[in-house]
Amino acid sequence: MPLLPEITALIRAAGFEPSAFGEAAVSSAVKKRMTLLSCSDEKAYAREVRASEAEFEELALLLAVPETWFFREPESFAFLKIFAAARRAGSGGAPLRVLSLPCCTGEEPYSIAIALLEAGLAPADFEIDAVDIHPSFLTAARAARYDANSFRGMDEELRRKYFSNDSGKFILRKELAQTVRFEKGNAMDFAALTKRPPYDAIFCRNLTIYMHAAAQVKLAEALDHCLKPGGVFFLGHSETMPLPDFRPVKHTLAFAYQRSVPAPSAPSPAPLPARGISRRICAAPLSGGNIPARPCGAPPYAAPSRTGAPCWQLIGSEGDKSCGKLAELAHCRNCEEFAVAARRFFDRTPPAGYRRECAGVLAQTKEAEHANEFTVIVFRLGRRWLALPAVSLVRVLEPQAVHHIPHRGGALLGMAAVDGELHLCVDAARVMNGSAEQETPETPAPGEGTQKLRCMLLSGSAAEQWLFPADEVGGILSVTPEQTRKAKESPGDMLAKGVFAWKGRQITLLDNELFFSAFARGVK
After folding, report:
1. What is the C-alpha separation between 109 and 101, in angstroms, rounded?
2. Rounded to 5 degrees, what are φ and ψ at 109?
3. What is the rounded distance in angstroms from the CA atom of residue 48 to the CA atom of residue 324?
4. pLDDT-derived band of residue 73, with 50, 70 and 90 as boundaries?
5. How far apart are CA 82 and CA 97, in angstroms?
6. What percent of the chain has pLDDT over 90?
């Protein structure tokens, strides 16, 4: 039956997105509840849902899928063990606090308890709060009796260690069951969540997939309010953290997020230049500002150095190079400390009159010689130097692992993951009819060195992005149409729109549309 707008509005007002369940599922759930209540009028049922919290809970129970088992997504618990051991070592004796929301029938909070015991913590070393809105789920959780289907993600040895078998039902050890405190609560009651005592870790998995974006943010903000500094959120595999300050932890398939630790704010930020603004707005060099920052590897919120100089000027790339992170990062530009200080530098409050003067400069007509200027990224394939409009560049990456796709050949090398997203990886040299594929590497110019590392370029449009390897990236530069000339007619230049000179080399400027269209043809 078609849904009454009042019912979908009630579902949305509660924080859920009706389309996440599907119209058929919502209609079926409404019909079942109306049948049980002997209600034939949908408008009357909508009034009942609006007036009765219990009825809305029953409707929500039919909509959500209460699918759970022990150690679901096991790497989440593997990371919890590592996190808990490290957290416990620096806690000063305070118990580790964990929240499971919603906890369903108890498999998740009991998995948390087992993982913490396996990490070496004693029952007195942790506290677990498990919250769910459905009384029937909480009753089943407190009983701690499960059938074999609940253990499809759990190691059999662990099951024997912590459960006893009673005629096909597996009963959790009493002392372990007592480590979890179950309570009734609504995850959508954001005000109540903010009043909860702080936790070291919060499991809120496979709930936000049913919520609309605004409610997701409100829930994350409420839970963030009761998360201790350095604490961790665990989400489901298809969920992402909606708050910008959180970053995924470096543990594959853990689906855990941790807040980025901010550097201390500068007591008196360096003023922005009020005069002499270039028509091309360029970033001031970070080393020029007196930006305090904590030394690499120091505890969070460490005070700036007494000299007021940032760590990269003292022990980093611009200092005595004694920082232990340099061996791994090679340069301070690759360090999070540098990035945090950069954000603070550019986010500082500008002086009076700066915005007005800057707006006036930007409003002026560009000089004629720069009116048609455009930016390109220059890279090398074999001996050929090429250029693409920089607007198509997403990222320049270190070589990524490329996974072969069976029964596919041609220009398609395979697939590679970038920040958790899969991209097709294409042999760009082969796409260009092999013009760069079989040639020997170019001899570097004097002073450029001889060792060049291959890299990968992630390019394309917002709708379609491609990954392709390059032998070297020359950089990003500005050119004008007057600097380019028509490319010669050859198979390798069919994708070109012109050539220009740079550092004594001839650079072939590729046509964006033709180049990526050739990629699409090459993988078919």
Report:
1. 9
2. -60, -35
3. 65
4. very high
5. 15
6. 27
Rounded distance, CA 50 to CA 13, Å? Answer: 10
Taking 70 as the threshold, does the pLDDT of residue 447 lie above it?
A: no
Element spanning 181, H or E: strand 180-184
Residues with Cβ within 8 Å of residue 460, at least 6 apart in sequence: 392, 394, 466, 516
Of 274, 79, 49, 97, the C-alpha closest to 199 is: 97
Report angle CA 490, 491, 492 to the nearest 5 degrees.
90
Tell me if residue 91 falls in helix, strand or coil: coil
Distance CA 253, CA 264 (A): 32
Residue 361 near residue 279, CB atoms below 8 Å: yes
Read off the DSSP letter of residue 67: -
Q: What is the pLDDT of residues 302-337, one digit of tens each?
A: 334 434 567 777 787 777 787 877 777 777 877 877
End-to-end CA distance of the chain: 44
**Tokens (6 digits) for 163:** 């459960």
Q: pLDDT tens, 207-228?
A: 988 898 889 999 999 999 999 9
Structure tokens belonging to residue 87: 């957290």
Q: Which residue has the tokens 């919502």?
A: 26
Dihedral of CA atoms 269, 274, 275, 277 in degrees, nearest 10, equals 80
**Helices 42-51 & 5-13 angle (0-180, nearest 10):** 20
Is the per-residue pLDDT at 178 higher than 70?
yes
Task: Supply 116's token pair.
Answer: 């913490």
| Contact in structure between 294 and 263 (CB atoms under 8 Å) | yes
Name residue, tokens 């769910």.
132
Edge-to-edge strands, sheet with 496-502:
472-479, 374-381, 384-389, 505-510, 496-502
Rounded Cα distance between 113 and 301, Å, is 31
Give pLDDT, residue 367.
Answer: 53
Contact by Cβ (8 Å): 235, 75: no
Report the distance separating Cα 97 and Cα 268, nearest Å: 38
The Cα 177–Cα 109 span in angstroms is 10
Which stretch of DSSP H or E encloses residue 246? strand 246-248
- State which H helix or E strand residue 61 sits in: helix 53-63
Using alpha carbons, select from 173, 73, 196 the residue that is nearest to residue 127.
196
**φ, ψ at 202 (rounded to 5°):** -130, 125
pLDDT score, position 296: 42
| Rounded distance between C-alpha atoms, residue 241 and residue 235, angstroms | 8
Q: Please name the amino acid found at residue 320.
A: D
Question: Phi/psi at 427 (nearest 5 deg)?
Answer: -80, 100
Q: Where are the alpha helices (DSSP H) in 425-487?
A: 428-431
What span, in angstroms and rounded, lies between the C-alpha atoms of 231 and 204?
Answer: 13
